[in-house]
Each structure stands twice: as structure tokens, then as C-alpha cells.
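REQUEST FORM: STRUCTURE PREDICTION
Request ID: SP-0412
Submitted by: Lab K.M.
Chain count: 1
Length (residues): 265
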Amino acid sequence: MCELSIQITGAGGNILAEKSSDDFVNLVFNGEYHPGDSIALTAKPRSFLVIRLDDGMGPSFVYMKQAKYVFPIPFGEKRRPYSPRAFSGQIHLLKARMATDAEISSEKNLARNEYDCHGNACCFPHASANVETRGESVFTARNAIDGNTENHCHGNWPYESWGINCDPDAEIQIDFGRAVQIRKIVLFTRADFPHDNWWTRAELSFSDGTSETVSMTKTDRPQTFSFSKDRITWVKLGRLIKSENDPSPFPALTQIQVFGTEASK
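STATUS: Completed
RESULT:
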């Protein structure tokens, strides 16, 4: 029985292309995507995969909590946070494989998932937020875990970010789908100065009920905070305090990285 498959489906539910295997799949789709098309990734629940659902994007190490994940092909306004090369053209190469034991056990950025989207409850990690600026795709939570750390402007790719719509109660949560062990968290705040403001302080809270207050600076460089947290299923960034010395009302987050391993037994 095949445990891994990729399927491309049209707006009407018709299958455009599919491929299945036990441990790895390479699917070539000769055709142009159209609105309503989607990619379905199927795997054994509670499995670790390395996926690349478009050759214009990078690979992501993901945890499949459930058997089937459906990723809608972005069109129109929703294409803005993606490279113009992604999901475009007349031929596409999609890949998925079971992760190796070494990949599973190694330390890595547990927060990265280029293929996250709203409503994702299957393919982890997943980012969600209580506010996203004007509901625009270039300011959604998934942008903060897509692996892109370019932070010198704002708007279309490669300058997508998580925008908080000037809300002092804004918070973003990264769900891992299983228990992990965290060693450090790295934040890239957006640095489109003087358009942007910046945060002087923030709180990182964890699924075990603990929290850490961190001090931040005005910089375009990564800001690293070390912790020792085990058996954590999510981390939340909130209680964001923006600088009162900067007239801009627009602080934002370009990327959050969470480095660690699978939880201890």
C-alpha cells in the first residue's frame, strides 16, 4: 500500500496529475495552473516529510499530523508574498519524501514551512495570528515562517512580513503539531526605516505555561534569545511594546525561527 502521494486537482475536482509511492514521490505536471487548482499531499499520519511543492520554492521539513493536506494554488492578491517564479509557467516539478532518521533527530529551525496557509491543521509547523494588516496576503502570519529573512522593505515578495495593523494586542503563534525541545528563538523584525517602527520588548510564551520577556533593539540583524524548553507544542510572541522614540506606527515581523529538536522521550 502506498503511503505517500501528490495529487493536483482542478477547480471542478478533476485530477490533473498524481503520483504515489512508499517513500518518495517526484511529480511532473505539464500544464498551467488555473484559479481553483490545488495540491493534495497524502502521507501516513504522524510522519515526517521533506516537501517541495513547487520548483520555484525551497524544501521544507514538515510533520504530517493527519493523512491529507490540501494547499490551494495562490492567484491574484494571494500571489503577492510568493516569488513570481512560483506556480507559474507550463511545467512544474513537485517532490515529497519521507525524512531520514538523521534529519528527524537533528537540530533545525522547527518553525519553517514555506507551504503553510490559513486553516492548516495537518502539515506543521503552522503560524496563526489574532490580527493581520488589512487582511492582505503580504502581511499574513505564514510569511513569518516561510524562511525569507529579507527585511529592508515591505509589501510584495521578497518583502512579505507579518503586519500587526498597529494593534498593541497583536500576537502570533507557531504550532508544531507535536512536542519539541527548544534551544533558541531568532527574530528578524522588519527594518524598512524610517517607514517602520520597532519593538523594545516582547513576551515569548510557551505551551507549558511559562513565559520569557525579551528586550529588543532597532536593527536589521537577527536577534537571538536562548532558552531551555522541553515538550513544547507551541510558542507565542505577544505583548509587543513599540518604541516611543520613533514616530512611525508600523512595527512588523519578517521572520521567527525556533531552533531545537524533537522532544526528549
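NOTES: The chain is about 0% helix and 45% strand.
Reviewed by: T.R.
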